[in-house]
Amino acid sequence: MISAIIFIIVIGILVLVHELGHFIMAKRAGMKVEEFGFGFPPRLWGIKKGETVYSINAIPFGGFVKIFGENDEEKKEAGSFASKSIWSRFKVIAAGVTMNFLLAAFLLMLGNFLGLRIGLVDNAIPSDVRDTQVQIIQVANGSPADKAGLKLLDEIKGFKLPGNITKEVKNPEDVQNTVAQYGGKDIKILISRAGQNLEFNIQPRKDPPAGQGAMGISLAMTGVVSYPWYEAVWRGVYNAVILTFNTMIGYYMLIKNLVLRGSMMADVSGPIGIATLTGQAARIGINYLIQFVAMISVNLAVLNFIPFPALDGGRAVLLLVEKFRGKPLPKRAEGLINSVGFSLLIALMVYVTIKDITRL
Fold first, then answer.
1. How far apart are alpha carbons 298 and 263 in whole angstroms?
2. Is residue 226 a contact partner of residue 116, using CB atoms and an 8 Å limit?
3. Tens digits of residue pLDDT in 137-163
């Protein structure tokens, strides 16, 4: 329940910030904004200031902006979306993803100041790093770790071995060496999760599938590092740029694999999976939640600007077509393109949601 509430709040903030970008840029471009809503209808409350209705709605997933003439290219009246130049309309469309990037940069600035957990290269521990941990960064479905109940971001503290021997671990190699000695035998793994010390029975495999390892987990040595505010500012922007670049590469590889092979190259989470991960991050600590929300915000920005119908990127492509044609596409053709794109997005959402439920 708590995970669901946190997820609703996070998604609400991310979508509202996205729509706020559209709203601000539309106002600056002289467009008439008919409504700026928090949540989605039915409307619970609203007040009109100037030409805009500011509303609070019943479904709390983000918000929306209704711009006069946005969905009807024939409306050329003053103040309509269609009456403005292509460049003005493009800036309105791009403002949403820009706001999501800026939100991610701000969150990462805050995280760099408070302290972010980072992966350590070659397990080397710099002098400015504190609270080092051996953490699980991936759990393979159906693996011994998955069946035992190990989760993403769990910290491995050690093992209880046959003969009542307790062994602490200091790095991922300690974990790997230990499980290699006890393949096919029952041992206990000691885990720290959200401040709780837990024990799980597990039997490492003697002959694991390729790329999974005896327990079916991937590990990383991590530590917390923080910076003074003046350094945290530029590091936050830098981290957001790198995160955006890597996310773009990730989506490119995902789409390429989907088109060429007809399959996903990795597990893709839908709303249920993201809600679960949001809850896990929140339970572990505010710093994890800040990093996770920044990552989602960047993903939302990149996803929205993919040149696909019904997304902001698809709308930008239609503006480019209009620029070369000298006039917009016929309303019926544009509507058909967006309908097909929206249907495909819904189908993908249903698919990843079913996979989320299957994993749960």
1. 24
2. yes
3. 888 888 899 989 898 889 999 998 887
The radius of gyration computed from the CA coordinates of the chain, to the nearest angstrom, equals: 24
Told to judge if 19 belongs to the known catalytic residues of this protein, a careful annotator would answer yes
Q: Which CATH superfamily is domain 121-225 in?
A: PDZ domain (2.30.42.10)
Mean pLDDT of 273-293: 72
Which pair of structure tokens corresponds to residue 253?
């590889």
Distance of alpha carbon 327 from the chain centroid: 37
**Domain range annotation of the chain:** 2-114+272-359, 121-225
> Which one from 19, 35, 73, 334 is the annotated catalytic residue?
19
pLDDT in tens, 314-354: 889 888 988 888 887 777 787 788 777 767 776 766 665 56
Contact predicate 80/62, CB 8 Å: no
Other Cβ atoms closer than 10 A to 284: 21
The answer to whether 269 and 356 are in contact (CB under 8 A) is yes
Query: Above 60 in pLDDT, residue 266?
Result: no
